[in-house]
Write a structure and sequence with these properties.
about 500 residues, alpha/beta, globular, five-stranded antiparallel beta sheet
Length: about 500
C-alpha cells in the first residue's frame, strides 16, 4: 500500500479536509511507513549510512518491521552530535531546508533542527485537529495570539508558521505575534480581540497563567473574548486547568484548552483532544486507576498521536520515535519517560472501571472522537526529589498549591528540595513564589504546607508509606514575585534542586 505522506504531496494539506486526511492515514499501516522512511534514509542520508556501517548493518537486510525494531537507537550523543549537520539532512545538503529551529540546550549544547515546508505541513495537522475539532475554528472568526518567545527557539516561530498554514487553508484565523511580552499581549487583546468571535492564547503554561492574572489586574475582562488556550512545554494538573478556565470564564475545559507534546527535534508529536482531556480528568479523580495504567503516582500528559506521522516505540520505559523531518529521526531516543496505549485498549480500560461516555468529565459524545492511539509522558525523571526513599514529583506538589484560597496567594511556581538540617536529618523544603502584592506570613505558609501534605498523601503512595508521619509536612518558605534567587524573570523555571 502506498503511504500518503504529506512530504510527497505538499498541497494535500491545503486541498483536503482534516476528516479525509486523517481517515486516509488511519487506513495505512504505520509500521510500513516507518520501514519506508528507514529505507529512504539509508539510501539518501550520508550520516545515517555511516551510522549503519559503523554498527555493521546492511540496509538491504532490513526488510520487515521486526528487522527495523532491532536497529540501534539514535540519540544526540551517538548521532546528532557525532555527524555534521548537512550530512544528517536528506541528500547531505542543508539547501533542501528553508527554516531552522534550535533546541533550548537545557540538557547540553543547543542543537539546530532544519526543516522544509512539507515537514511543517505534517505538523500543522496537529494544530488543525485542535483548532477544528475542539475550538470549531471553521465556524468562528479567531484571533490567535502567539505568546511563546520569538526568535530561533522552536515554540514561537514554528507555532506561528503552522497557524499561517491553517489560515491559508481557509480557516478564518488572524495571527498576532507579541511573543512573551505581557504589555504587547495586553495591547493586542484590548485593540484586536473585540473584532473576533474568539481569541486563542498559545504559550508556556506558567506564562499563560501570568498573562491571564496580569491581564485581569490590568482591567481585561477575559470572559468577553471567548478565550481558548493552547499549551506546550510542561506537565500540569487538572486542578490547574480548571483554575485557568475559571479565570477566563470557561466551563468547558475539554473544548477550550489543549496541550501539545512538542520537541525541537521532532516537532509536535501529539496533541490533546477533547477525548484525551476527559480521560485525563477521569484519572485525576481516580488516582488508583492512574497508578494501575501508568505505573506511577503522578499524572502524565496524555495525548493522541498520528502513528503515520510519528511512530512510537518504548525502550526501558522511555519513548523512541521515528518520523520524517529535515533531519529524519530513525528510532530516535527522546528520553521522555512514558508509554503507549492503543485506542481500543484505553476504551476497554475505562469500561473496566465503569466509565463509558465520559460526559461527567466534560466530553460530549455528540461531537465525536477520533480512534487515534495515546502516548503519555512524565517528562525527565531527573526532576524528582528523593525523600525517605519516595520519589516526590513536582506534579504532586502543584495540586496542593491549586486548592481554593491558596491559589489567590501563589503564582504556581515553586522549588522543591530535600536538604539535610543541622541535625543531619532530611527535611522537605518547599520555596513558593507569591503573587504580586501578596505579603508573606506564617498563616499562609502553614496553610500551604498542610495542603501540599494532604495532596502528597492522596496522590503519592510511596510518600504515604515511606515517609515518617512526623516528616510528612514540608517546611514552606514564601518568596516575593520575581525573587532573583529562586524565581528570576526571563528564564525557564526549574521546579527542583538537589
Amino acid at each position: 500500500m502506498t503511504v500518503p505522506l504529506l512530504a510527497d504531496q505538499p498541497l494535500r494539506f491545503l486541498d483536503r479536509s482534516l476528516e479525509d486526511l486523517l481517515a486516509e492515514r488511519l487506513a495505512c499501516d504505520p509500521g510500513v511507513a516507518a520501514l519506508s522512511l528507514f529505507q529512504r534514509a539509508a539510501a539518501e542520508v550520508p550520516a545515517y549510512q555511516s551510522f549503519l556501517a559503523a554498527h555493521g548493518i546492511r540496509p538491504d537486510a532490513v526488510r520487515t518491521l521486526a528487522d527495523f525494531v532491532r536497529l540501534p537507537l539514535t540519540d544526540k550523543p551517538n548521532y546528532m552530535q557525532a555527524y555534521p549537520l548537512p550530512e544528517r539532512c536528506w541528500g547531505g545538503n542543508l539547501a533542501g531546508c528553508d527554516r531552522i529551529a534550535v533546541s533550548s540546550g537545557s540538557t547540553g549544547k543547543p542543537t539546530f533542527w532544519p526543516r522544509a515546508l512539507h515537514h511543517e505541513l505534517d505538523i500543522a495537522l496537529r494544530f488543525e485537529q485542535v483548532f477544528r475539532d475542539a475550538f470549531q475554528v471553521h465556524a468562528r472568526s479567531t484571533l490567535a495570539v502567539v505568546c511563546f518567545a520569538l526568535g530561533n527557539w522552536v515554540g514561537g516561530i514554528y507555532t506561528t508558521s503552522c497557524l499561517w498554514h491553517l489560515a491559508r487553508k481557509g480557516y478564518p484565523i488572524t495571527v498576532a505575534t507579541p511573543g512573551n511580552r505581557s504589555d504587547e499581549i495586553f495591547r493586542v487583546i484590548r485593540e484586536l480581540a473585540p473584532h473576533f468571535e474568539q481569541t486563542v492564547l498559545l504559550g508556556y503554561p506558567p506564562f499563560v497563567k501570568d498573562v491571564i492574572d496580569g491581564g485581569a489586574a490590568a482591567g481585561i475582562s477575559w470572559e468577553r473574548h471567548a478565550v481558548k488556550l493552547v499549551f506546550a512545554g510542561e506537565v500540569f494538573s487538572e486542578e490547574w486547568r480548571s483554575l485557568v478556565c475559571a479565570r477566563i470564564g470557561s466551563d468547558s475545559p475539554c473544548y477550550d484548552t489543549a496541550s501539545l507534546y512538542g520537541t525541537a527535534d521532532g516537532g509536535v508529536l501529539g496533541n490533546e483532544t477533547p477525548l484525551s482531556i476527559a480521560i485525563r480528568r477521569f484519572f485525576a479523580a481516580h488516582p488508583q486507576a492512574a497508578r494501575e495504567l501508568f505505573g506511577e503516582s503522578r499524572l502524565p500528559t496524555l495525548v493522541q498521536y498520528d502513528p503515520l506521522s510519528r511512530y512510537f516505540e518504548l525502550h526501558e520505559g522511555t519513548l523512541v520515535v521515528t518520523g520524517d523531518n529535515g533531519v529524519p529521526l530513525l528510532r530516535y531516543h527522546i528520553a521522555d519517560r512514558g508509554g503507549l496505549v492503543g485506542y481500543a485498549e484505553m476504551r476497554d480500560f475505562l469500561r473496566d472501571w465503569g466509565t463509558h461516555d465520559l460526559t461527567e468529565y466534560g466530553f460530549d459524545p455528540a461531537w465525536g472522537e477520533r480512534p487515534l492511539p495515546f502516548v503519555y509522558l512524565f517528562g525527565r525523571a531527573d526532576f524528582t526529589v528523593s525523600y525517605y526513599g519516595a520519589n516526590i514529583y513536582p506534579e504532586n506538589v502543584t495540586v496542593g498549591l491549586e486548592q481554593p484560597g491558596i491559589v489567590d496567594w501563589v503564582s504556581g511556581k515553586f522549588v522543591l528540595e530535600a536538604p539535610e538540617d543541622s541535625a543531619g536529618d532530611r527535611e522537605l523544603l518547599l520555596t513558593v513564589e507569591l503573587l504580586p502584592g501578596v505579603e508573606a506570613d506564617e498563616a499562609k505558609a502553614a496553610s500551604i504546607a498542610e495542603s501540599v501534605r494532604t495532596e502528597l498523601l492522596r496522590l503519592n503512595s510511596e510518600f504515604a508509606h515511606y515517609t515518617p508521619r512526623a516528616r510528612q509536612t514540608p517546611h514552606v518558605v514564601l518568596r516575593p514575585f520575581g525573587d532573583p534567587e529562586y524565581f528570576p524573570a526571563g528564564v525557564k523555571h526549574r521546579y527542583t534542586r538537589r
